[in-house]
Amino acid sequence: MKPVIFIGPSLPQAAAQTILDADYRPPLQAGDLDRLPDFAEVGIIDGMLEPAVRLPLVEAKRSMERGIQLFGAASTGALLATELEPLGMIGVGRVYSFLCTLAEEKEDLIVVRQTTDTFTARTVPLVNVVLGLLEGGRIKPIEVATLIESLREIPLEDRSWEVISNRLACTHGAAAKRWLQEEWPDSKAADASFLLHLLRRNTGVHNR
């Protein structure tokens, strides 16, 4: 059985298919894991976070009791892994590692608005901004909490590069507006690709 991958705005499926031959499905939601066979290998990248459709933790726990191996990265997968790692879920990537350092408000860093047909992101995930600034040496680790608090004040629907750039200019000076005009790393996409490469090595599946 091919690995099952739940994917959406973090990485286009066309790009994912060049890395791993898998059973690609839309972002994870309630009921999806219950419908999988025992002992399936599952990579969770994206998922629905609205209360009415989001995956209940009890369903994820039930799937692992059936021998399903869960891997998570980049977005909803990384978020789930921070909660389920003690039970055996495997989290990978920079986003997952960063979320593990936070005590709360993790979800707001990875959430985006997405189109309902193609699951394309319509807003900027805050985690991409924070990790880009941190790993690029633009901010110091001690400044992360204050930065997150400031960025979280931007309503989800308004999280565009322009609005975020203006907010950074207010908190870090005019020079900060130039930061986001530079080539910017997409941490979510990078972590999604990393997970797919990992599963390819684990299953012996090669590029097509």
Distance between the termini: 17 Å
Q: Count of DSSP E strands?
A: 5
User: Any idea what the shape is?
Assistant: elongated
Query: What level of helicity do the residues show?
Result: 40-55%
**Biggest beta sheet attributes:** 5 strands, parallel
Provide the succession of SSEs: EHEEHEHEHHHHHHH
Number of DSSP helices? Answer: 10
| Class from helix and strand fractions | alpha/beta
Rg calc:
17 Å
Low-confidence stretches: none
Strand portion, in percent? Answer: 5-15%
Mean pLDDT over the residues: 91
Q: Widest sheet: strand order?
A: 2-1-3-4-5
Task: Describe the 3D structure.
It is built from 10 helices and 5 strands. It is an alpha/beta fold. Strands 2-1-3-4-5 form a 5-stranded parallel sheet, sandwiched between helices. Helix 3 crosses helix 4. The chain is elongated, with a radius of gyration of 17 Å.
Outline of the structure:
By secondary structure, this protein is an alpha/beta fold. It has helices spanning 13-17, 57-65, 76-84, 94-100, 107-110, 126-135, 144-151, 161-172, 176-179, 187-203, and strands at 4-6, 23-25, 41-44, 69-72, 90-91.
Provide the descriptors you would attach to this structure in a database record.
5 strands; 208 residues; alpha/beta; 41% helix; 5-stranded parallel sheet; single chain; 8% strand
Please write out the topology.
Elements: E1 4-6, H1 13-17, E2 23-25, E3 41-44, H2 57-65, E4 69-72, H3 76-84, E5 90-91, H4 94-100, H5 107-110, H6 126-135, H7 144-151, H8 161-172, H9 176-179, H10 187-203
Parallel strand pairs: 1-2, 1-3, 3-4, 4-5
